[in-house]
Amino acid sequence: MSKLVAPHGGKGLVCALLEGAERDAELKKAEGLKQIEISARAKGDLIMMGIGGFSPLDGFMTKADWKGVCENFQLADGTFWPVPITLDVSTADAAAITEGDEVALVRNGEIFATMKVTEKFEMTEENKKWECEKVFLGEGEESVDGNFWKIAPEDHPGVIMVMAQKEVNIAGPVKVLSEGEYPKEYPGVYLKPAETRAMFDERGWANVAALQLRNPMHRSHEYLAKIAVEVCDGVLIHSLIGNLKPGDIPAPVRIKAIDILIENYFVKDNVISAGYPLDMRYAGPREGLLHATFRQNYGVNNMLIGRDHAGVGDFYGLFEAQEIFDRIPETGDTGKDLQCKPMKIDWTFYCHKCDGMASLRTCNHSKEDRVILSGTKLRKALSEGAEIVDHFGREEVLDHLRKYYEGLTEKVEVKMQGAASGDSM
């Protein structure tokens, strides 16, 4: 019997993915349905619903779910959920759909799912702005003192995405027919929740931590993962393999960097590297909660949350993504409440006087003694061909990343923010 945390929602893994003859029949039916072109974000959401990563969701949210999630972190039935999972369509498409209709959801000519439309609701500009303020507004300097709407429409990828959504949301359950390119492009890395759970069970793990990654692993990431290994049965290094923002490093390059680290600096029995197919929303604290929610479905009960988790620019406070876990609602129902808990790790760095990795909780030395580590700083230095300071990353990994940047034909501009620079330490 598994010792792992139960999937979120109290219904086991809710998987909308069809296979075999059932999938073939649904694909044939889909060819005769009205086709709705979906975004890259919706494609990732569908795949997560297909494989059980978004359990207990079986489709896109109703207006009551959307409103409850934005306002109270809860679906209409009281189940915890931190970020809206909605599907937008144009006014013209919405007018051609009657509630109760089935539609085919298509991305670049590929049918990803069918959907039974149970509800349509308008998303006015005010509705979109309200969602943005609830989901993306933080406590950093770019969010406060009236700065948010001065800066976010141009500089916050999540806000840009929501404000660009079409005029109507449609809701309803889905039948997922494709996992996209992920099984073929990321064999052994793209793992479904049932697969990671089986791997954890095989190793006898009960207490599992996850490290969220969208940047190549530097020494702080390595340190965080090793903290988790010390106090848990094992760690899942879980990389985003969906879409990122311009200037971020592609998934295959980041995955190879992780493989190099595991090969040279970890006990392999205590770590698993995998990827998940979502696009980043850059929702900072809310996205930290989303990461914990779907990691619970993968069998993880501890989520590593460090400095500026899932942040962008200076919209969020350095440890706002940790603090939000203390404010989420609890019903007392273990099925509905979030069971994956945060591992709150302070600012980590290399300290010359300590002669090793440390944090603000363990190191009493000055800022001048420390090598401040961040993925943004690393990407900026590499993109500019600048020297990487000692102890920032493992040399084997840095060599790999340098080769990637040397092969680029266009210069990548990386914007430095306060959270990554160390100025606010």
Which secondary structure elements does this structure contain, and how are they paired or packed?
Elements: H1 20-30, E1 34-37, H2 40-51, E2 59-60, H3 63-72, E3 87-89, H4 91-95, E4 102-107, E5 110-116, E6 119-122, H5 125-135, H6 148-155, H7 157-163, E7 168-176, H8 182-185, H9 193-203, E8 208-213, H10 219-231, E9 234-240, H11 251-265, E10 271-276, H12 285-297, E11 302-305, H13 320-323, E12 341-344, E13 348-351, E14 356-359, E15 370-372, H14 375-383, H15 395-406, H16 418-421
Parallel strand pairs: 1-4, 8-9, 8-11, 9-10, 11-12
Antiparallel strand pairs: 2-7, 3-7, 4-5, 5-7, 6-7, 13-14, 13-15
The CATH class label of the largest domain is Alpha Beta
Structural class: alpha/beta
Helix amount: 25-40%
What is the CATH topology of the largest domain?
A: Rossmann fold
Tell me the count of domains: 2
CATH architecture of the largest domain: 3-Layer(aba) Sandwich
Number of distinct beta strands: 15
Low-confidence stretches: none
Strand content: 15-25%
The main pleated sheet reads as: 7 strands, mixed
Distance between the termini: 46 Å
Q: Quick check: average pLDDT? A: 93
Question: How big is the Rg?
Answer: 21 Å
The general outline is: globular
Superfamily at the CATH H level of the largest domain?
A: HUPs
Number of helices: 16
